């Protein structure tokens, strides 16, 4: 695979390797065990930020049809008041030094929760080891957002170790690996026959508005938004149906002069609720009177889980090609590093 010269840290390879990462993460998970898994768990909280938190969101959707207790992703310094000794808190930080996640770990200790974690090392690993908590050590050397497989799959194995889910999701991930190893051959090509590149060519000079479906493609919409921001240095926004029909739709009335600078991306799945599919069709028609730059995105896959991971992978490529079309290096996150440096000095 040829990588453009401006991709100095080879983000293309990191995206291309997503199915390989899934396979490696499965092997990592197979070797994991807990010393004390016979614990009553009544709810789950994932404490994380950015690329680590999105792993919790994806995990929640992947097992939504199987898990029968609440699952919450917490992006904050503190945990909800209802968290207690029956809560499993999964602290996820790729670097192991995310200050919000470290604070949440301390809060989890104070609340007497069951704690486990996922990280490459850092302070979080030290704290987990000192606490005697279950710990999944994942490979270092990637941008956190490019390590999604190592956030999702180890989390699934942690839940399996606690007896909260079975093995069926891992069959779906293996099906995803097979599919994406084929599809990525197209997505990595820098030409208009590549559907990811073609979409990027249509939207890279716009502000993308991404709409998904609640408890389905909404998590992919969130991921796409983050990838546009971090990989392509483009502002993007997301929302979900049916909620956006009850407020945001009216916002497409005034300031019509701005709409020519926006694109609308509809992330769809064949298993979306029939009424939501109808809402999508009607909403596209209504909005089409204001904005014609609309794109409906659906991907192939043998199940909802496979299609969700495929849709995320496709979006990663779209954001990558937007970066290349902008002449932007897709790896550095200069403004985030500037913020972290200033925070660390306070």
Q: Would you kindly provide a brief summary of this structure?
A:
With 346 residues, this protein is α/β, with parallel strands linked by helices.
Model description:
The chain contains 12 helices and 9 strands. It has 346 residues and is of the alpha/beta class. The chain has 2 domains: 135 residues, Rossmann fold, CATH 3.40.50.10490; 143 residues, Rossmann fold. Strands 2-1-3-4-5 form a 5-stranded parallel β-sheet, with helices on both faces. Strand 6, helix 9 and strand 7 form a beta-alpha-beta unit. Helix 3 crosses helix 6 and helix 7 runs parallel beside helix 11. The termini are far apart.
Write the layout of secondary structure elements.
Layout: H1 11-16, H2 18-30, E1 43-47, H3 50-62, E2 71-74, E3 87-93, H4 99-110, E4 114-119, H5 122-131, E5 134-137, H6 148-161, H7 168-187, H8 195-203, E6 207-213, H9 218-232, E7 237-241, E8 262-267, H10 274-288, E9 294-297, H11 304-326, H12 334-344
Parallel strand pairs: 1-2, 1-3, 3-4, 4-5, 6-7, 6-8, 8-9
């Amino acid at each position: 695979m040829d990588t453009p010269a401006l991709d100095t840290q080879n983000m293309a390879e990191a995206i291309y390797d997503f199915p390989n990462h899934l396979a490696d993460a499965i092997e990592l998970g197979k070797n994991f065990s807990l010393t004390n898994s016979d614990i009553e768990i009544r709810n789950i909280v994932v404490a994380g930020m950015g690329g680590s938190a999105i792993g919790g969101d994806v995990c929640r959707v992947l097992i939504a049809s199987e898990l029968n207790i609440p699952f919450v992703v917490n992006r904050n310094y503190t945990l909800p008041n209802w968290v207690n000794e029956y809560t499993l808190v999964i602290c996820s930080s790729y670097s192991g030094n995310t200050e919000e996640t470290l604070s949440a770990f301390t809060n989890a200790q104070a609340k007497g929760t069951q704690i486990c974690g996922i990280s490459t090392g850092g302070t979080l690993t030290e704290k987990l080891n000192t606490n005697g908590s279950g710990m999944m050590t994942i490979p270092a050397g990637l941008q956190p957002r490019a390590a999604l497989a190592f956030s999702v799959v180890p989390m699934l194995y942690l839940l399996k170790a606690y007896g909260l889910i079975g093995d069926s999701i891992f069959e779906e991930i293996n099906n995803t690996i097979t599919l994406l190893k084929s599809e990525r051959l197209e997505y990595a090509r820098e030409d208009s026959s590549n559907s990811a590149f073609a979409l990027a060519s249509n939207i890279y000079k716009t502000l993308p508005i991404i709409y998904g479906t609640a408890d389905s493609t909404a998590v992919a919409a969130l991921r796409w938004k983050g990838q546009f921001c971090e990989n392509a240095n483009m502002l993007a926004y997301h929302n979900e149906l049916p909620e956006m029909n009850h407020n945001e739709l009216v916002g497409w009335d005034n300031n019509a002069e701005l709409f020519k600078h926006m694109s609308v991306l509809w992330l769809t799945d064949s298993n979306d609720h029939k009424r939501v599919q109808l809402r999508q069709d009607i909403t596209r028609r209504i909005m089409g009177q204001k904005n014609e730059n609309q794109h409906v995105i659906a991907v192939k896959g043998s199940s909802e889980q496979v299609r969700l991971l495929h849709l995320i992978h496709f979006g990663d490529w779209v954001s990558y090609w937007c970066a290349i079309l902008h002449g932007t290096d897709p790896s550095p996150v200069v403004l985030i590093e500037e913020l972290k440096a200033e925070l660390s000095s306070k």
